[in-house]
Amino acid sequence: MTNADACRYTKSHEWAASAGDVVTVGVSDHAQKEITDVVFVDLPKVGRKVSKGEAVAVVESVKAAFDIYAPISGEIVAVNGELAKAPGLVNESPQDKGWFFRVKPANAGELGELMDAAAYDKFLKAGGH
Amino acid sequence: MRAVLLQTGPMDVFAHMAMDEAVLETACGQGAEALAGRSSSAPGEGGSPGECVLRFFAWAGEAPFGATFGYSQRHEAVAAAVRLRWPGKQVPLTRRSTGGGIVFHDGDVTFSLVFPWPELSTPVFVYREIHMAVQLGLKAHGFWSRLWRPGPPEGGAGPRQECFSGPEPEDLVDAGGGKVLGGALRRRRGMGLYQGSLRPEGFAPAPRERLARAVLEGFSLQKGTIFVPREPRPATAAEAQRLRGERYGAEHWNKKR
């Protein structure tokens, strides 16, 4: 299970957790509550090169679709295939079983530019923007 | 409060979807700037950062004009539903960037709204706000409607394949409980796109033009908004043309599922 306190966060509510030479990405608990019941997740293809801030995935809840952004630049090396069968994992387990994709970072420094858990919490309390 | 009433000529389903996405894209830059409290250096379709853009669809050709379907729907199932609806007719189909079900465009009042989508606002909240505005406008024109919410026996209806096969929470229904307004949303970089379809049958014999006026007046009344008519900027029109060819009119997009 990903430790939420050890994750880094974006202002668009993605989390990123580093393990070895890959970074796992998903959406925060706050984001899944805002999106509400997820019915579909459109994931990027493995091998795709992405830039920090680029829209790389789409989450659909009843009536609404949301863009999900790459928190760092790099190459997509894995995606969570379970989400095709069980998109509700995003709601049930946003920071563990509901992960979206893994990125091999192009620039190791980018992860450190994201908010830590305390800063993200403060960000949310300030209204989230 | 000022907003833009974007005026576009008759177009097909592909061009309409492309125009909506182009407007959303240009507004996204503005939305991000507005949320940061800065003015935008690259103007979008809104007259100033964070302004709403409302647009009514005019259709090219003869009805049925086409069908649009939700972002995650399967093309094959949609095509089958369209064949059932309009047997023997070749009707253009395109995937929307918004969610929701199939919408058959054969006389509905179709419109879109690009707007700042605040943090902490769920899709249901946003959807309700938009539908309350339309309800207000319909009421001002003497048309009764209400927001539909499921009672205990109905439970929470899941997503429907066809938008108008029945109401979902916060849709507008007429006195007989028939769905008259449905819509779908997309959120991108602090901005939202709503695409809505108002069926005239529940308000017969009201002409479509009067219903469109009611929608416009509803948005005006809800927040005291003054809508200024304007044509798309050249950059938006060019982006829409690109998106029509490369996305909404393309197989890789429409048959991605």
Q: How is the secondary structure organized here?
A:
The complex is a heterodimer of chains A (129) and B (257).
Chain A: E1 8-9, E2 14-19, E3 22-27, H1 29-35, E4 38-42, E5 49-50, E6 55-61, E7 64-69, E8 74-79, H2 82-85, H3 89-92, E9 101-105, H4 109-112, H5 117-125
Antiparallel strand pairs in A: 1-2, 2-3, 3-9, 4-6, 5-8, 6-7, 8-9
Chain B: E1 2-6, H1 13-35, E2 53-56, E3 66-69, H2 75-85, E4 93-95, E5 103-105, E6 109-116, H3 123-140, E7 146-147, E8 172-173, E9 179-188, E10 191-198, H4 208-223, E11 226-230, H5 234-248, H6 251-254
Helix pairs in contact in B: 1-5, 3-4
What does this molecule look like?
The complex is a heterodimer of chains A (129) and B (257). Chain A has helices spanning 29-35, 82-85, 89-92, 109-112, 117-125; strands spanning 8-9, 14-19, 22-27, 38-42, 49-50, 55-61, 64-69, 74-79, 101-105. With 129 residues, chain A is an alpha+beta fold. Chain A has one domain: OB fold (Dihydrolipoamide Acetyltransferase, E2P), CATH 2.40.50. In chain A, strands 1-2-3-9-8-5 form a six-stranded antiparallel β-sheet. In chain A, strand 1 and strand 2 form a beta hairpin. Chain A starts with 7 loop residues before the first strand and ends with a helix. The model of chain A has no long low-confidence stretch (mean pLDDT 94). Chain B has 257 residues and is α/β, with parallel strands linked by helices. Chain B has one domain (2-254): Bira Bifunctional Protein, Domain 2 (BirA Bifunctional Protein, domain 2, 2-Layer Sandwich), CATH 3.30.930. Chain B is built from six helices and eleven strands. Chain B has helices at residues 13-35, 75-85, 123-140, 208-223, 234-248, 251-254, and strands at residues 2-6, 53-56, 66-69, 93-95, 103-105, 109-116, 146-147, 172-173, 179-188, 191-198, 226-230. In chain B, strands 7-8-9-10-6-2-1-11 form an eight-stranded mixed β-sheet. In chain B, helix 3 packs across helix 4. The longest helix of chain B is centred in the first third of the chain and has 23 residues, at 13-35. Chain B is globular, with a radius of gyration of 18 Å. The chains are: A alpha+beta (129), B alpha/beta (257). Chain A binds chain B through residues 12, 33-36, 39-40, 42, 55, 58, 60-67, 127-129, and chain B through 35, 70-72, 97-100, 119-124, 126-127, 158-159, 168, 183-190. Strand 7 of chain A pairs parallel with strand 9 (179-188) of chain B, so a sheet runs across the interface.
